[in-house]
Amino acid sequence: MIMMTLDQFWKFLNTVRKKSFTEIILCLFFLVLILAYYCVNVFHILPCMYQLPSVLYLTHMLSLTFMVFNLLANFLAVMYADSSVIGRLLTISKYTSKEDITYCYVCQCDVPLRCWHCDKCNVCILTRDHHCTFSTTCVGHYNRRYFLWFLLYLSVASFYEIILISYYTYYKVTIKFSDLMVLVPFQSVLTGFHLTAGEIFVVLLTLNFIAVTISSLLLIYHLDKVCKGLVCHEKQESNYDFGLMRNLETVFGEKWYITWISPFIESKLPYNGIDWQSHVNQYKTK
Questions:
Q1: CA dihedral 39, 43, 46, 49 (to 10 degrees)
Q2: What are phi and psi of 100, to 5 degrees?
Q3: Half-sphere exposure of 66 (CA within 13 A, CB side)
Q4: What are the Palmitoyltransferase DHHC domain coordinates in residue numbering (predicted)?
Q5: The predicted structure's pLDDT at residue 92
């Protein structure tokens, strides 16, 4: 559950300030782009296509609002939910052998199973999956759920945008073959940034095609890992494969089947991300 106290908020802001300039720019660009698409749809495309207030307009607006809310909220949750070892008591059970424990000289602590140090975040991450450049943080034990729902809503929203913009341009905008030249590198610089309506919608459609392709492929890849009980660092291992339902609970929590509605739905994770070996032994004895 995402509950932000004042101290946690300042800690979050301080963490963001330490990120690289490139990551911060990409993150802000992504957030602005989502809001810009939403405004173009609600205040331009939909009013031009449907009379206000019509049932179709309200249906599209509510659908877009729901998708954008989950897209932004899950994206911010990935950034805020801390999966690092900072401030956590790294207790190890009797089931864990000394060979399974390594020492991180940067964090100056024993590193539990499935925990790796991130050079960009400069900290060890519990059940580290990978470092996400756009969210400027690592995806690990406590924010992996939000990252996967973010990918899902990005795929759905991008596909929705392609249909909506294509329908709008078919009836309202005339796209010429010359408008496709806007996709040629440096073409906009040479023409002095005098974009026509056709060129603008060519760019919007192209961005959505790129977004839906990349996000869908990433979603398929990461869901396959989740279903097999793996993270990106792990190959075809079966040490942490507890079965499909249990694997889903490990990432999405006990209420995994409704977490798609909102990132604010509390769904307790069955494991703490530290003592994996005891969980493996408990699972095998069932």
A1: -140
A2: -80, -10
A3: 11
A4: 99-237
A5: 64
**What's the CA angle centered on 115, arms 15 and 90, to 5 degrees?**
85
Q: Mind listing the pLDDT tens digit for each residue in 130-178? A: 999 888 899 999 999 999 999 999 999 999 999 999 988 888 887 776 7
Question: CA 71 to CA 239: how far, in whole Å?
Answer: 33
C-alpha 65, offset from chain centre: 18
Contact 23, 131 (CB under 8 A): no
Is cis: bond before 53, omega within 30 of 0? yes
What is the torsion angle, in degrees rounded to the nearest 10, for the CA atoms of residue 201, residue 204, residue 206 and residue 212?
Answer: -140
Backbone angles phi, psi at 260, to 5 degrees: -70, -20
pTM, 2 dp: 0.86
Euclidean distance between CA atoms 249 and 271, whole angstroms: 9
CA 176 to CA 170: how far, in whole Å?
Answer: 12
Instruction: Give long-range contacts, CB 8 A cutoff, 24+ apart: 216-221.
Output: 216/155, 218/151, 219/148, 219/151, 219/152, 219/155
Query: In sequence order, what are the residues at sequence separation of 6 or more whose Cβ sits closer than 8 angstroms to the Cβ of residue 80?
Result: 2, 4, 12, 143
The residues near 159 (Cβ < 8 Å, ≥ 6 apart) are 208, 212
Q: In 3D, which of 38, 28, 83, 34 has the Cα closest to residue 63? A: 38
Q: Give the separation between CA 37 and CA 162, rounded to whole angstroms.
A: 12
Helix (H, G, I), strand (E, B) or coil at 138: strand
In the numeric block, which tokens belong to residue 64?
A: 């877009």
